[in-house]
Specification:
binds adenosine monophosphate, 7-stranded parallel beta sheet, 37% helix, alpha/beta
């Protein structure tokens, strides 16, 4: 299958050739013709699967046929959970739309609103936005949606994880009822399905891989280690394996800064990106990493969302994520667009419950590799094999027949409603 068999126009095919995209990825093969037909889609596509092009290309083509935007109008809206993803989607759109006259704009919070308001005056064909800033702009009348034709919700699961449920409702309320809707999510929980019912209309469901799994070319392994020795172990692994480009995930902003200091003392060049760093500093850190002037980028989950780095060979979890689905988002940074990658987790005894959740989500045990000299004094308990669920107990015959609520039982046991270790969404929002 090649791109010109998907019904894309010549200006788009030219841009793809210049970007050296030769073959469409599976999600692109399925989504592009469907979106071109004007249908709604509900797509389960993993990070790194090429999902951005799968919605951007047909969107650009459809917008090319319509009327130009009037002042302050947005003809299409791509909603994303973080500014990093907004920037990345915007960068991709620039590349794909090079030979069209369509105008796109990226807006997100944490920067001055006035320049964004000015840019919106002429109207835009595509507006890429994070929810909070979009609502601010709408309240200021800087953006209007009378001409809106298409809504795209990218990384919808992440949007809910970050607590944007209410913002989404506000935004949906402001949009015209008649529109095309495309919803993308890396994972499909019951919450996402419920959200989908309020957004998409008779959608074509696209399932590229089994839900909640990572891309297969990732080699997952973990090293059991005591909590306090994690930074030393990381330094040891970087030097031993000569990792030249590793993205390292940590739980907290302070932890990220401490790790950068420890790496610096070991002569390993690194930088951190997290919520307390300005947009300019984050961008600089990311650029240094892309240009290979630093070899380790330390990140918290929220800051790392949307990072797109070609050929990133190693993703390291210095701390396991609190929510299991974040593991999939994290490791999706490696093995992008068909390359191989490794996902390495440094796991201490305290994290064994998180590990069980991750392994259950993956449907397999992660290979354990003990590092000589770093064997833990507090052992990480072996996870029960997620592939061999414990035998269901035979129900005892009740003495008196009782009415049971089977629906409630099923809901409780749903494997996708993962809230781990007693952490709530509120905790996550403020991480
Ligand atoms: P995404 O999943 O949209 O974040 O895309 C992951 C990476 O794959 C990005 O760097 C894209 O530029 C790249 N990519 C997407 N589609 C293709 C393709 N058909 N051929 C080559 N690279 C691609």
């Amino acid at each position: 299958m090649s791109f010109d068999q998907l019904g894309l126009s010549v200006p788009l095919l030219r841009a793809l050739a210049e970007l050296n995209y030769k073959t469409p990825t599976p999600i692109q093969t399925k989504a592009i013709p469907t979106v071109l037909l004007g249908k709604d889609i509900l797509a389960c596509a993993q990070t790194g699967s090429g999902k951005t092009a799968s919605y951007s290309l047909p969107l650009l083509q459809r917008l090319g046929n319509g009327q130009r935007p009037r002042s302050n109008q947005a003809r299409s809206l791509i909603l994303v959970p973080t500014r990093e993803l907004a920037i990345q989607v915007g960068d991709n759109l620039q590349g794909y739309s090079l030979h069209t006259s369509l105008r796109s704009l990226v807006v997100y919070g944490g920067v001055k609103i006035n320049p964004q308001m000015q840019k919106l005056r002429g109207g835009v064909d595509i507006l890429v936005a994070t929810p909070g800033r979009l609502i601010d702009l709408h309240q200021k009348n800087a953006v209007r949606f009378q001409q809106l034709e298409t809504l795209i919700l990218d990384e919808a699961d992440r949007m809910l994880d970050l607590g944007f449920g209410d913002e989404l409702k506000t935004i949906l309320h402001a949009l015209p009822k008649k529109r095309q809707n495309l919803l993308f999510s890396a994972t499909f929980s019951a919450d996402i399905r419920e959200l989908a019912t309020t957004i998409v209309h008779k959608p074509v469901e696209l399932q590229i891989d089994t839900p909640n799994t990572t891309v297969p070319s990732i080699n997952h392994w973990l090293v059991p280690v005591d909590k306090t020795r994690k930074p030393q172990l990381l330094i040891h692994l970087i030097k031993q394996h000569e990792w030249s480009r590793a993205l390292v995930f940590v739980k907290t902003k302070k932890g990220a800064d401490r790790l950068v200091t420890a790496l610096g003392k070991a002569d390993i060049k690194s930088a951190a990106i997290h919520g307390d760093k300005s947009q300019a500093l984050r961008r600089r850190a990311l650029d240094s990493f892309k240009q290979k002037t630093i070899c380790v980028l330390v990140a918290t989950d929220v800051a790392a969302r949307g990072i797109d780095i070609d050929q990133l060979p190693q993703v390291v979890n210095l701390d396991l994520p609190i929510v299991a689905t974040d593991y999939i988002h994290r490791v999706g940074r490696t093995a992008r667009a068909g390359t191989d990658g490794e996902a390495i987790s440094l796991v201490c005894a305290d994290e064994h419950k998180q590990l069980i959740d991750i392994e259950q989500l993956l449907g397999k045990l992660i290979d354990r590799q003990y590092e000589p000299g770093f064997e833990p004094s507090h052992e990480v308990p072996e996870s029960p094999s997620p592939l061999r669920p414990s035998k269901p107990k035979k129900p005892k015959k009740p003495k008196k027949p009782k009415k049971t609520n089977t629906l409630a039982t099923t809901e409780k046991l749903s494997p996708h409603t993962t809230t781990i270790s007693g952490q709530t969404e509120r905790h996550r929002k403020h991480r």
